[in-house]
Every structure is written in structure tokens, then in C-alpha cells.
Specification:
about 25% strand; alpha/beta; 20 strands; globular
């Protein structure tokens, strides 16, 4: 089933990009009336903006650069939202919070959730001024806190400390849940934050992962991806962006996991709908129906294991031909790439783990 899904997705994306419309077969199309939660990954170019919608209540996570503020506000209004119950600013980088000033000034906002940093750019200060001017309730993000909206909820998982070298790891990470379906929203959280979440022992498994930092190789470590073990990944990035996002190392990991991924630069705005048991996806370009997924479908993430050769001191991904020809007595498994390197092993030049 998973292989068929990937084939359908690949064919769909190719045809939609060519300007054709195709409707792929689905097991159960979720009608608007049946949807307990809709998650809108809004196309804001090289940035992030996610609208959560459940039974007439709305949550906004980020709003892209300043120039996308009008677009995000209009998108929210088209959903007939009278107000936003929560607005989450994951971290104070302009590609995530630049558009929030326009949104907060344009629609009633009840609560604003973010994390304290020493950021003092004009863009960030304008957001804080809008929060103050509109009497929005300010909430410090605290790991473990859970908030409900409609038939869904979100729990803050990170940040878990407050002394990071860069703003990305301050990102407010949330686990959004509706019934049995879970979405992990990571902002720009990178390796340090991922390591802290893994060390905290929380259940990180999610059906859908919004990849950290637009698919950069500075996020989405193999250990983190194994713990999340998503069936779907969403990459929010701009077409032909200057950063090369998503990075090929990240895409390779997703392919090793047999994880279906969707990109806003290719598909436009992506909408996931769930009734708490199933998921289906639609994309903006071609209005294409992607697939339907049922909660509880198991996947094997063992391909992301790092296997070292005790004789050559070279380590590989588990599916590398070099592993298949290796004797069992020469194999050693590492949990992370860093662990392998610290043990004196060199990455394979073929599979590039």
C-alpha cells in the first residue's frame, strides 16, 4: 500500500506541475462536515505559516515574511474565521513572524504564545506592539502545557532550555492531536532542540511532520526522524530559494524511511483534513486529491540506522550495499551520526550518511 501511495503521489505531482489536473483514488474522502481538524500549510514562499481549524475555532502558527501578511489574513478570512483563539510565533525570525503584525491588527486575536529571547529587530518589535495594542493575552511557551480548540488540542514540546547559540533552537515546537492523528510542528528547531526532545523521553511519534528549518540538513537528524517515524512530511520553502532548501541529505533520509513528502514550492498551499481516524490531503496547484491514510499504519524506520564496519571504520546507512556485504561480526550500530564520528568512524562516500 505504501509503495502504491508513493507512486500515486509522484505521478500526481508531476502532472500537476505540468498544468494537468488528476484525481487519485482515495479509500475514504473526508468531507468538510466530517473533518474534525483541517491543517492548512499556507504557501508563503521561503517561510512558514500554518492555520489550524477545528469546528469554527482557529489557531495560527507563524505568518511568513511581512509581504505575506495580507495573503495570510485573507486566507484566514476566506475560512470565515471570526477570530483566532491562539497565535503562535515559533521564534523571532522574519520569515516566520513578519506577517503576524498584519494578521493581529486585522482579526480579533485572543492569545499570543511565544518564547522570550533577546531579539530586538523592528519586525519583531512591531509584532509585540500589535499584541499590546490589541489587548491580546500574552503567554510564555512552557513545555508540557496543552491547549484545546474545537475538537483538537496542541501540546508544547520545546524549547526545553533557554541558552541556545541561535534563535532557531528557541522554536516553539507543538504536537497537534485530533483523535488518533498527530501532527508535529517544529518551526526551525535544529539538532540541539531535537536532541533535548529525544532526551526528555516524550512520545514524539506523529503521522505528519512539518520538517524543521524548511528541510535544512541542520534539522531532521536520523535519530529524531526515527522517533517521529512520520508517514508524511511537509516542507515549507520557496521555489529556487537561496539556501538550497530542502537539502538533499534531508530528502535522502525521507526516501530511506519511505516517507511521502509534500513541498509548498511545488504544490502550493497544502491542506490536510482528518476525522480523527483518517487523513487526506489536497494541494493548491491542480486542486489535486493526494491520498487518504488511516491512523495506526505501521512503518519501518530501521533504514535510518547507522551501521559501522569494525574493520574499515566506515559507517553507512542500513540499506547501503556496503552493509549487505559486511559480515555480522564486523557490524556495529550507532544511534546517531555524531556517535559514529566520535567513535572514530568515517562516513561512507557512496551512501553519504
Amino acid at each position: 500500500m505504501k509503495k502504491l501511495l508513493c507512486f500515486i503521489l509522484s505521478l500526481t505531482m508531476l502532472l500537476s506541475l505540468a498544468g494537468c489536473e488528476i484525481i487519485s483514488p482515495v479509500e475514504k474522502e473526508i468531507a468538510d462536515d466530517d473533518a474534525l481538524l483541517k491543517v492548512h500549510f499556507i504557501d508563503v514562499g521561503q517561510g512558514d505559516s500554518i492555520l489550524l481549524e477545528s469546528k469554527g475555532e482557529f489557531v495560527l502558527i507563524d505568518a511568513g515574511e511581512k509581504e505575506y501578511g495580507d495573503n495570510v489574513l485573507k486566507y484566514i478570512q476566506k475560512r470565515k474565521a471570526k477570530s483566532l483563539k491562539y497565535v503562535i510565533a515559533t521564534h523571532p525570525h522574519s520569515d516566520h513572524i513578519g506577517g503576524l503584525t498584519k494578521v493581529i491588527n486585522g482579526i480579533d486575536t485572543e492569545n499570543f504564545i511565544t518564547v522570550e529571547t533577546d531579539q530586538s529587530t523592528k519586525t519583531w518589535l512591531n509584532v509585540l506592539k500589535a499584541v499590546d495594542a490589541n489587548d491580546v493575552n500574552y503567554i510564555d511557551a512552557e513545555a508540557g502545557d496543552t491547549y484545546s480548540f474545537g475538537e483538537a488540542s496542541f501540546t508544547i514540546l520545546a524549547p526545553l532550555s533557554g541558552n541556545y547559540s541561535g534563535y532557531n533552537d528557541y522554536s516553539v515546537v507543538t504536537m497537534v492531536q485530533c483523535g488518533d492523528i498527530r501532527f508535529l510542528m517544529t518551526g526551525d528547531a535544529e539538532k540541539e532542540s531535537e536532541k533535548e526532545m529525544l532526551g526528555a523521553g516524550e512520545d514524539l511519534h506523529a503521522d505528519v511532520l512539518k520538517l524543521g528549518h524548511h528541510g535544512s540538513s541542520t534539522s531532521s537528524t536520523a535519530a529524531f526522524l526515527k522517533a517521529v517515524n512520520p508517514s508524511f512530511a511537509i516542507i515549507s520553502c520557496g521555489k529556487n530559494n537561496d539556501y538550497g532548501h530542502p537539502h538533499k541529505e534531508t530528502i535522502k533520509k525521507l526516501n530511506l524511511m519511505d516517507c511521502t513528502y509534500l513541498r509548498t514550492d511545488a504544490a502550493g498551499t497544502i491542506v490536510a483534513s482528518t476525522d480523527g481516524k483518517h487523513l487526506d490531503f489536497t494541494t493548491e496547484k491542480g486542486k489535486t486529491e493526494i491520498a487518504t491514510y488511516s491512523a495506526g499504519q505501521s512503518k519501518d524506520s530501521d533504514a535510518l540506522a547507522y551501521i559501522g564496519n569494525k574493520s574499515s571504520h566506515i559507517f553507512h546507512y542500513a540499506d547501503c550495499p556496503g552493509v549487505k556485504s559486511m559480515s555480522e561480526k564486523n557490524k556495529v550500530e550507532f544511534d546517531t551520526r555524531e556517535e559514529a564520528i566520535e567513535a572514530g568512524y568515517t562516513p561512507c562516500s557512496s551512501c553519504n550518511p
